[in-house]
Amino acid sequence: MYTSHNFRTGASAYARIGVETGAMSASPHQLICMLFDGAKAAIGMARHHMAEGDVVAKGNAVSKAINIVENGLKASLDADAAGASGADLVKNLTALYDYIVQRLLYANLRNDAKALDEADRLLDDLAGAWREIDAGAAAA
C-alpha cells in the first residue's frame, strides 16, 4: 500500500505545499528571509552530498543555492528604490552576492568544503542583519 518511495513523494509534496502557502502569505521581508533559509539549506545539502561523494546530488544542491542567490536575493535588489543614499549599498550587496556565487562554483568544481562554509557564513551574516531589520521595525 505505502512504499518508502510513496512516503517520500507524499512528504515532499506536503512540504512543498507548506512552503508555497507560506510564500503566498509572507511579507516581502519574510520572502527574503525564506530565500536566505533556502540557500543555506541547499548549501547544507551540498555539504552532505560532498561528504558522501555524491557528485550529481552535490552539483544539484549547489546549483539550487546559486539559483536562489542569483535569481532571488540578487534579483530583488532595486537600485532605483534604494535612492541615492542606498545606491552604494545595492552596489556592495550585488558584489557580495557575485562573490558568494563564485565561492559556490569553486566549491562545486574543487570539492572544497571550506568554500561552501565561507558562502554559508556570508549568507548567515546577511540573513542575521536582515532579520534584525525586521525586529527593529517591529519594536518601533
Description:
There is one protein chain. The chain is mostly helical. It has one domain: Up-down Bundle (Four Helix Bundle (Hemerythrin (Met), subunit A)), CATH 1.20.120.340. Helices cover 90% and strands 0% of the residues. It has five helices and no strands. Helix 3 runs antiparallel to helix 4 and helix 4 (79-110) runs antiparallel to helix 5 (113-139). The longest helix has 32 residues, at 79-110. The chain is globular, with a radius of gyration of 17 Å. Pfam families: FliS. Belongs to the FliS family. This is Flagellar secretion chaperone FliS.
Radius of gyration, whole Å: 17 Å
Helix % is: over 70%
How widely separated are the two ends?
Answer: 54 Å
Overall 3D geometry?
globular
Order of helices and strands: HHHHH
The count of DSSP E runs of length 2 or more, i.e. the number of strands, is 0
The total domain count is 1
Strand content: under 5%
Largest sheet composition: none
CATH fold field value:
Four Helix Bundle (Hemerythrin (Met), subunit A)
CATH superfamily: Flagellar protein FliS
Which CATH first-tier class would you pick? Mainly Alpha
Family: Belongs to the FliS family.
Organism: Variovorax ureilyticus
Pfam family, one: FliS
Keywords: Bacterial flagellum biogenesis, Cell projection, Chaperone, Cilium, Cytoplasm, Flagellum
